[in-house]
Amino acid sequence: MIKKSKHIAFIFLLIILVSPLFFEIFSFIHIKSLKGYFQEISDSNLTIQNWNSGVYQNQHEKVFQQKLRIRPVLVRINNQIRFLIQKDVSAANVVYGKNGYFFERHYIWTYYGLDFKGADSIRTKMNDLKTIIDFLETKNIKFLLVLAPGKAEFMPENIPDEFKNDNKKTNNYQIYKQLCSKLNISYIDFNSYFRQMKDTIHYPLYTKGGTHWSIYGSYLAIDTIIKKIEHLLQKDLPDYNYPLYQVTKKMRRSDHDIANAANLLWYKHNQVVLYPYLQISDTNQKFKPNIAVIADSYYWTIVNNGIQRLFFNNFSFWYYFKENHTSKSDSPKMLSEIPDLKSEIESKDILVFLITDGNLREFSWGFTEKIKELYNLD
Fold first, then answer.
1. 296-323 core/surface letters (b: 16 or more CB in 10 A; e: else)
2. What's the burial of 348, exposed, middle or buried (CB within 10 Å: 0-12/13-18/19+)?
3. Nearest Cα to 174, choosing from 197, 150, 206?
4. CA neighbor of 164 nearest in space, from 207, 104, 109, 102
5. Cα separation, 177 vs 360, whole angstroms
6. What was the pLDDT predicted at 6?
7. pLDDT tens digits along 338-377
8. pTM of structure
9. What is the number of alpha carbons within 13 Å of residue 72 lying toward its C-beta?
10. Distance CA 186, CA 172 (A)
11. Are 191 and 156 in contact, with CB atoms under 8 Å apart?
């Protein structure tokens, strides 16, 4: 029996040692690449000093390991073992919460007010925004602020115990929401809206493996945003319905983005999700506004649904007020490359600013400062 165990152990060890060579030789075997952001390691210069100190050898070994074809498999095996034993997630900024929910850490910190910018600082930001909104009104340009929800704000009961904090402080979202009402700024608060639906909705507004609102949740957001735009512009946008939908356990795109970034061999989400198919039902005499959306990654879910091409005419998505994605081109450019930003703004019927609570600490990514500079608003 002991001899047989030794043979099995030897064969297993031999397989481990030979497998990298096997995958290098048989390059036609497909290996799924790792997800997430990885910084490429640069090789060290071969000099006498680097050689004698061992710097060259150590760096060259790291480069060799990174380029091994079998590396993604080995990383996933290692990550899976750590996850099964310790519930430890190797992805940066990602933690595993209760009931199988993954969270990004900064959304938890935001929920507890650990990144609170202070009421005075936020008030200054919002006063500047109000000045800009009032000026845009003179140009007949409407403005809508959308407070996208945060996963920790939506389901604090699933935050991991090690992050629980009974001393919850005032957070950025609470102050921004108060000032929206006080300054009479047109806004949508999806944090409140989603919480109101939480106990009655049939399908997840947040999936276990996603960091953004679910694709289903984003369609609910679209409904609300379209109605609000119609109200602000006093125009009738194209009518639509949902003639088809799919109910499935197979997640798509952003519905498992941070779980994918964990690079595990498998994980159980045990969720049934709904994917609607939106169809325009009536465009006769309907208005399609020219729109610019300044937003973070939450808006990508809406963009990927194809909504902007169905409802809007001249469309711009200014991602973090840095990248310029437009309906006129499939290739994004930097916002700084727009030759006349003032004319671009004045060509729009409405500006929509969408930001999730986890990014409110960085409000407004330079947007208010740039508009004040363009129009000399003080």
1. bebbbbbbebebbebbbebbbbbbbbee
2. buried
3. 150
4. 109
5. 11
6. 56
7. 999 999 999 999 999 999 999 999 999 999 999 999 999 8
8. 0.84
9. 15
10. 18
11. no
- Quick one: three-class SS letters along the chain? CHHHHHHHHHHHHHHHHHHHHHHHHCCCCCCCCCCCCCCCCCCCCCCHHHHHHCHHHHHHHHHHHHHCCCHHHHHHHHHHHHHHHHCCCCCCCEEECHHHCEEEHHHHHHHCCCCCCCHHHHHHHHHHHHHHHHHHHHCCCEEEEEEECCHHHHCHHHCCHHHCCCCCCCCHHHHHHHHHHHCCCCEEEHHHHHHHHCCCCCCCCCCCCCCCCCHHHHHHHHHHHHHHHHHHHCCCCCEEEEEEEEEECCCCHHHHHHHHHCCCCCCCCCCCEEEEEEEEEECCCCCCCCEEEEECCHHHHHHHCCHHHHHCCCEEEEECCCEEEECCEEEEEEHHHCCCHHHHHHCCCEEEEEEEHHHHHHCCCCHHHHHHHHHCCC
Pairing label, strands 239-248, 102-104: unpaired
Written as one letter, the residue type at 290 is N
Residue count of the chain: 378
Q: Which two tokens stand for residue 179?
A: 């000032």
User: How far is C-alpha 161 from the geometric centre of its chain's CA atoms?
Assistant: 24
Q: What is the pLDDT of residues 178-215, one digit of tens each?
A: 999 999 999 999 999 999 999 999 999 999 999 999 99
Asked if residue 294 lies in contact with residue 353, where contact means CB atoms within 8 angstroms, the answer is yes
Please report the sign of the dihedral spanned by the C-alpha atoms of residue 122, residue 123, residue 128, residue 130: positive
